[in-house]
Amino acid sequence: MQKVKKILVSQPAPADYEKSPYKAIADKFSLSIVFKKLFHIEGISALEFRKNKINLLDYTAVVLTSRNAVDHYFRLAKEMRTQIPISMKFFCSSESVAFYIQTYIQYRKRKIFYGKQTTADLMEVIVKHKDEKFLFPCSEESNSDVPAAFAKSKIALQKAPMYRTVPTKVAGELDAKDFDMLVMFSPVGVRSLFENFPDFKQEGRLIATFGASVAEAAQQAGLTVNLLAPTPTSSSMVQALEEFLNDLSKHGWDLPKIAEKYAYHKASASTANGAKEDLKGKDAAARARKTIESKVAANKAAALAVIAGKKGGRIGQMARAQK
């Protein structure tokens, strides 16, 4: 393939592009990066929300994992003229989301808790308040692992869709065919690509996706995912992108030489996971065998010691008798 010269990143441009890692990548590989979000957030109306028969005041705690969730929770409360009591507890996925709540309420007067970043971190905090009634504001398309984490911990949680992601019309502003690589962050972005460009064909273009759900959506749309982020060595898309382009340039922009390292293969991924589980099972079995063997050895040694002690005692008695 030819050298990558132009990339479409389906996100808004960084606030300070000149100091962003994307600018560093553009300079390093002499390429152009265009930012254009392919979808936008649309709030669910109060009338539509009421159809779900969810009363905000029936819950004593709210789980917030994004700024969108914060915005639309307080928007709907305002539209439905619901006064959120000062006793309401807020559990946030990160410190930044927790501080963002200050947009709507006085932080110091509220009971606000947050995890470090992951759902596992957040659950460590939540299990200490498991008797609360939890509400989870989210999008209609949410594939968050929060509900599963609550179910695993046997804590009740009510999902409350409050907004949706909607494809944005961009066909008049750009042409997907002008790019050598498309970077996608949402299944809705994949849908938007084909709604805007019904005749789009990947041909020699590279497709990068962040997260398995986006990769699966791209694959179902007939696209080949060349870069699936995060990678084992890169936690963000921009890091994975730089790693990918580094490898690609080192191999003379010969994609087949690095394809297997970065591509998304659902079957092989599940096979790998299965192999890992098998390995864990074998390791556990080996540890169990070692534990049993060590216990048997210890019991045997103890028994021999007892027998030796008894023999020693009898020999001593015989010696004393002969005297």
Question: Could you explain the architecture of this structure?
Answer:
The protein has 323 residues and is α/β, with parallel strands linked by helices. It folds into two domains: 6-38 and 168-264, Rossmann fold; 42-164, Rossmann fold. 44% of the residues lie in helices and 17% in strands. It has helices at residues 21-29, 46-50, 67-79, 95-100, 119-126, 146-152, 187-196, 212-220, 237-250, 259-262, 266-322; strands at 6-9, 32-35, 39-43, 61-64, 89-92, 111-114, 134-139, 157-167, 181-184, 206-210, 227-229. The strands form two sheets. It has a six-stranded mixed β-sheet with strand order 3-8-7-4-5-6. Strands 2-1-9-10-11 form a five-stranded parallel β-sheet, sandwiched between helices.
Key structural traits:
11 strands; 323 residues; alpha/beta; 2 domains; Rossmann fold; disordered C terminus
Q: Which helices and strands, and how do they pair?
A:
Blueprint: E1 6-9, H1 21-29, E2 32-35, E3 39-43, H2 46-50, E4 61-64, H3 67-79, E5 89-92, H4 95-100, E6 111-114, H5 119-126, E7 134-139, H6 146-152, E8 157-167, E9 181-184, H7 187-196, E10 206-210, H8 212-220, E11 227-229, H9 237-250, H10 259-262, H11 266-322
Parallel strand pairs: 1-2, 1-9, 4-5, 4-7, 5-6, 7-8, 9-10, 10-11
Antiparallel strand pairs: 3-8
Helix pairs in contact: 1-9, 7-8
